Amino acid sequence: MLPAGAVQSQDKGPIVIAVPVGLSGVNSVVAPAVVQSGELAVEEINAKGGVLGRKLQLVPLDDESGPAGAVKAFNTAIRQHKAHTIITMETSAARNAGAPIAERAKTLFIYTSFYEGRACGKSLFINAWVPEQIVPPLIKFMTDDKKVKKWFALGSDYAFGRGMIEAAKSTIKGVGGTILGEEYQPLQQSDWTAIISKIRAANPDGIIYSTSGGGPNIDFMKQFKAAGLKMPVGSLSIDELTAEAGGDAAEGVYYTGDYFTGLDNPENRKFLDAMRKKFGAGLKTPNSLSEPEYDGVYAYAMAVEKAGTTDVDKLVQVLPTIVFKGPRGQVQMNKQHHASLPVYLAQVQANGKTKVLKSFGLVDPGNQCPSLK
Length: 373
Fold this sequence. Notes:
By secondary structure, the protein is an alpha/beta fold. It folds into 2 domains: 4-129 and 263-339, Rossmann fold (3-Layer(aba) Sandwich), CATH 3.40.50; 131-257, 3-Layer(aba) Sandwich (Rossmann fold). It has 12 helices and 14 strands. The strands form 3 sheets. It has a 7-stranded mixed β-sheet, sandwiched between helices. A 5-stranded parallel β-sheet has the order 2-1-3-4-5, with helices on both faces. A two-stranded antiparallel sheet has the order 11-12. Residues 1-10 have low confidence and may be disordered.
């Protein structure tokens, strides 16, 4: 009997990577950047001969930023496109709908979005941050440096929004702070007037918020500023591209993350140069919701090469051993299918650009999936 790698090498068809992502809906601001990151990784890998002598093929699909669209996109990816893997950034609602489909089909799913934590599955891997990595540094900074003791918390009414605010509340209470108010907005609604009125009445020292990724961040901040409110704001959901797209709407907002274009390392400089060369004026600013797609494609390609096959059972064993040194630094999904990540503090500037203020070093994701190794 030939070894698995020898059998696999006889198949010269493309290795299909599906990217179901919110090309419409609330994630549509950031989704094109996710696709661009994936396209660059595939182009670079294919230019070096592909994987096991086979080319990679990226197939973007619109999950409409929600669960119904995700069900359609995942089924299309697996049934129609015969995807070998799904590597993507999605809303948590979309992920929760799509992940069981991938699990049942024995399709490896690398989730590249920061999220509320504790999503677990045999074939589900996450290479982006969880609350344990970015919430405590942000809350501690705002408590110590901005003297925020009394907080108002708000978010989008779904798993990510509520999950992140729960993590923030726990951290705030741990450092002796108090929560004056907690409010949630339905995911597709953009009018924050009623919640902003409650903020004004509560008069907190500072705000912590967690909307869905993309446009809702800017909707809230525009209305917050229009109301004349001046207290410090910490965001658990904004990203560099969204901040830039909003112009000066998010000016002053503090946030923590694992990737920023301003990171000064050879891998990030090479990545940004390649992105500019490939996409030119059409480049969407790389950010912490899009760059992990690049890392995820590379990690998958390295795992397939090492395993000698696209077989998911073998890849599940190999993937935690893969270390990819990319724009964020070294990333390895070896902690219960999650990754220790470098974390930075940043602030949105007057032109919407993001300035990195501080590094917290490599931060452990904590105990996410105890039943997984």
